[in-house]
Each structure stands twice: as C-alpha cells, then as structure tokens.
Amino acid sequence: MGTADGDFPVRRVLHVMRLPMGGLFRHVRDLVQGQQETGIAAGLICASPPDDGISAARLSELEHHCGLGLHVMQMARLPGFGDLANLREAAALVARLKPDVIHGHGAKGGLIARLTPAPRETVRVYTPHGGSLHYDSASLEGLIYHGAERLMRSRTDGLIFESAFSRDAYLAKVGTPRGEAAIIHNGVSKPEFEPVATYASAADFLFIGELRMLKGVSTLIEAASLMGRPVHIRIVGAGPDRARFEEMAREAASHVRIEFLGAMAARDAFRLARAVVMPSWNESFPYVVLEAAAAGLPLIATRVGGIPEIFGPAAARLIPPADAPALAAAMTSALADPAAMTAEALTLRNRIAAQFTVERMVGFIDDFYAGLVERKRARLAMHSAPRGGSGKAEWTGAGR
C-alpha cells in the first residue's frame, strides 16, 4: 500500500458528507486523520452537527486534522433547491482548494461530490454507506434515489463499497458501475484493541446503537421475555423509537430488567455489560460490531448486511433477524457457558486485528485513489496529444 511520497499522484482530497454523526462520520473521521498521517492533505464539507454535544466535540476535534480545512454548510437531508446553494459553495471551495480527489459519502455527499463543477482531471469517488441502497426498489423513494444513482454513474470515476453486501445491493438496485469499483472494509484503530474491563455491576447484555425499529430492539425485548431465567439488559443510544421501546420494556416479563441509558461513547458503554447483542433487522457494515470484537467482548449478532463478512468462518453462529426465539436461545446459551463465548470472542478479535484495521483501510483507499488519478491523467493526455511522432502516447480512438 502506497504513501503520499514524492511520486504519489494524490496530494489533496476533499471529502463530502451530510450529518457528522454515526458510523459514516466515524469512517470519514478515520479516513481524514489517516490520510493526513500519510502526507495527503484532506478536507471535509459537511452540515452542522446535531445538538447532542458529542458530535459537535468530535467534529471540532477533527478540524485540527483537516489540512484542507473543515467547511460547514446548511445541508438538507432530502433533495431540494438548497442543493443548488450547496453546489455553488462546493464549487467555490474546489476552485480554491484544487483537490485531486473529491470523495462523496452517503447519498447527499455523493450527490454534491459528483455534481459540483470541477476541473476535468479531478477524480470523483463515491461511497454509498448504505444510504440510498437501503430503499426498496419498488418504493417511491427507491425509484427516485436509484434513478438518480443511475444518472450519476457517468460522473463517478470510482466506487468504494465497505462490504460485498453493499456492492451486491448496488448492482441489484442501480446497475453496473460505469467507473472502477472496489470493496474496502472499514477498520478500527490500535487503541480499540485494548481490552475493556467491565464493572462489577455489569449487566448480562448490552445493546448500543440508534433506537430505531430496524435495529431490532423490539426483538431483543421479546427474546428477553422468552428466556426462562432472570436477565439484565442495558440499552445505550438515542433515537426516534425510544419511547416505544421503553413501553415494551415495561410490559416485558417480570424476570427481565432493562435500563435505558442514553447515548455514550462505545468503549464507555462496553464496561456496562459482559456481552454485546446486535439484533438488527438491517445493517450495512456496522462499526459497533468491529469495536466490540476488537475490545474482546462476547458478541451475539444477526445474519444481516456485511456482518457475516466480519465474522468470516464463524458466521454460521449468527442468528436470523427478527427471530426472538433464536435470539433467546443464543442469549441463554451465552449465560450458561461464558467460557465458550469468551473463546469465540478471542478468535474474532484476532480476525479483526488481521483484516479490519484503520491502517489497512486508509492504505487501500489511498492506493485506489492513486490508480484512478493516474489512469484518468493518462486518458486525458491521450486525448490531448497531437498526432505524429511527438514521443507522447497517441490517441487513435480504436481498440482502447
């Protein structure tokens, strides 16, 4: 994997995303910091952070690592006339910063990165991060978003998918990419492999994530009621369905104790329980699975999205989504044989350390950029080279 030495073709990268929170922001943050460390000046365009304190603090910290600056603008979630203002602002930044690569993340970031006016030699890269790929192709939203993705294929030099699952979803819902494509998995950093010491008052299980129905919290509560023994669960996170889940928790069986603790940093949350449960109905390539596995915590998860790619040979023990009896059986087994769960956790931690690190992720992405930049420059040189014996590559328009 290359670094940005004197011969490296990529010196300046501008990332574009909408809301600086969640796994998408975690990915961009790691990428910006990693690229700065390899000698690539990286910058970020994004919307204002949500008013939760944590996101604003993380964005402020990232600003110190942005060699091309942090640029915050008003950015709506849905397409609209506000996008025209975003494109004008982004175009002014591109003209001033002169990035070699504009990399859009998520549906809105991908739209701005690919439609912003830029020099011909500028390479445009897009990572969906689920985004528009989450929509059903038969829904109105799916028809709109997938149609827009098809139109923007001609303005996409490179596509990076964080999982084979996302690549397959793109092929099925959008079609064959016009540009080059690569699967480059997300990764975690070295400090995240430090073991987490759980508190003496630790619960049996921890859920950490956004409190939305698709995260499977309702399945977790139902599964807890099906268990034939006392069980203590802590739920960490915020989201639109919290009140609904709290009502379900109040109606759970008497042997179930469930606490809702709000949002907090993952490693702080990991101290609160002896095992992590990811009961999601739908996922892309969730960071919390990587983080929990790197920390060495026993992990129960569903067979959705890119999670089987994380587990590899151990994917056979993943459980079906929205299957409360199966989840209850897995949780009961974990409590009955904690030594087996600990051994499985160690095996998974070793796999994460070998294949899912930030260093590998950044290196592969930088090399993908470099190949795109070099090949685009070569194509442009061929088109502009005069015919005759100039010593330069000659474009004939045939057989190329």
Topology overview:
Layout: E1 12-16, H1 22-37, E2 41-46, H2 54-63, E3 70-72, H3 82-97, E4 101-105, H4 106-115, E5 123-127, H5 140-152, E6 158-161, H6 164-173, E7 180-183, E8 205-208, H7 217-226, E9 231-236, H8 242-250, E10 256-262, H9 266-270, E11 276-278, H10 287-294, E12 299-301, H11 307-311, H12 324-336, H13 338-355, H14 358-384
Parallel strand pairs: 1-2, 1-4, 2-3, 4-5, 5-6, 6-7, 8-9, 9-10, 11-12
Helix pairs in contact: 1-14, 7-12
Q: What features would you describe in this structure?
A:
Helix 1 packs across helix 14 and helix 7 crosses helix 12. It is built from 14 helices and twelve strands. It has a seven-stranded parallel sheet with strand order 3-2-1-4-5-6-7, sandwiched between helices. Strands 8-9-10 form a three-stranded parallel sheet. Strands 11-12 form a two-stranded parallel ribbon. The protein has 400 residues and is α/β, with parallel strands linked by helices. It folds into two domains: 204 residues, 3-Layer(aba) Sandwich (Rossmann fold), CATH 3.40.50; 166 residues, Rossmann fold (3-Layer(aba) Sandwich), CATH 3.40.50.2000. Helix 4 links the parallel strand 4 and strand 5. The C terminus is likely disordered. Helices cover 42% and strands 14% of the residues.
